């Protein structure tokens, strides 16, 4: 009888550890899926920017430095996204993505501020449509980033709370890094007004 009770206890412990392990795997997959949503929205954002620059080029020919700055920032953001996509949750990759997106947002802000000085550009239908799509995409990025950060928090909590921490450390579950913007001004989508 004692042997049966001992075996039942061992089986219960094994099932509990397996349950904890599976919960960690599910939480990790959840934050990786949430990052995939950020990837979709940032890729859309990055794809809109060349069209925006091309539309503005004819009007802002003598503002070449601003246009080139936006393109450089966009290319850096694409590179940052590629690095983060390869390893979502990695602290260095998230920091590089955050920094490159902050720079891109600032460059776009300068472009939009500059475009305010050109009434013909403000009235250009393509420019208005691209600006509207970009603003919509910025909102989607914000929602996707929030979902990702929530999933990272859930994963990290499961990873750090006992007895999950014991299982996480035993199976080398690494902490995940949320995607944060350090520049408070960059937390807002660029203000676009072509009216």
- The coarse overall form would be rod-shaped
Helix content: over 70%
- End-to-end Cα distance, whole Å, is 83 Å
User: How many beta strands in the DSSP annotation?
Assistant: 0
Contiguous runs where pLDDT drops below 50 for at least 5 residues: 183-187
- Give the ordered list of helices and strands: HHHHHH
User: In angstroms, what is the radius of gyration?
Assistant: 23 Å
Structural class: mainly alpha
Mean pLDDT: 87
Let me know the largest β-sheet: none
Number of helical runs?
6
Strand portion:
under 5%
Could you walk me through the main structural features you see in this protein, from its secondary elements to its overall organization?
With 195 residues, this protein is an all-alpha fold. The chain contains 6 helices and no strands. It has helices at residues 2-57, 64-86, 91-115, 119-123, 125-160, 164-170. Helix 1 packs antiparallel against helix 2, helix 1 packs antiparallel against helix 5 and helix 2 packs antiparallel against helix 3. It is rod-shaped. The model is unreliable at 183-187 (pLDDT under 50).
């Amino acid at each position: 009888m004692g042997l049966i009770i001992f075996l039942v206890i061992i089986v219960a412990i094994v099932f509990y550890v397996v349950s904890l392990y599976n919960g960690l795997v599910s939480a990790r997959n959840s934050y990786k899926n949430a990052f995939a949503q950020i990837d979709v929205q940032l890729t859309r954002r990055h794809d809109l920017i060349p069209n925006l620059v091309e539309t503005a080029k004819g009007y802002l020919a003598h503002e070449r430095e601003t246009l080139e700055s936006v393109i450089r920032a966009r290319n850096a953001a694409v590179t940052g996204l590629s690095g983060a996509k390869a390893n979502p949750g990695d602290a260095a990759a998230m920091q590089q993505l955050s920094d490159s997106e902050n720079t891109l947002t600032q460059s776009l802000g300068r472009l939009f501020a500059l475009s305010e000085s050109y009434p013909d550009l403000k009235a250009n239908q393509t420019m208005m449509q691209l600006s509207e799509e970009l603003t919509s995409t910025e909102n989607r990025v914000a929602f996707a980033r929030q979902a990702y950060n929530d999933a990272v928090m859930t994963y990290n909590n499961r990873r750090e709370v006992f007895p999950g921490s014991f299982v996480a450390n035993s199976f080398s579950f690494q902490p995940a890094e949320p995607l944060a913007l350090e520049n408070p001004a960059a937390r807002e989508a660029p203000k676009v007004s072509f009216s």
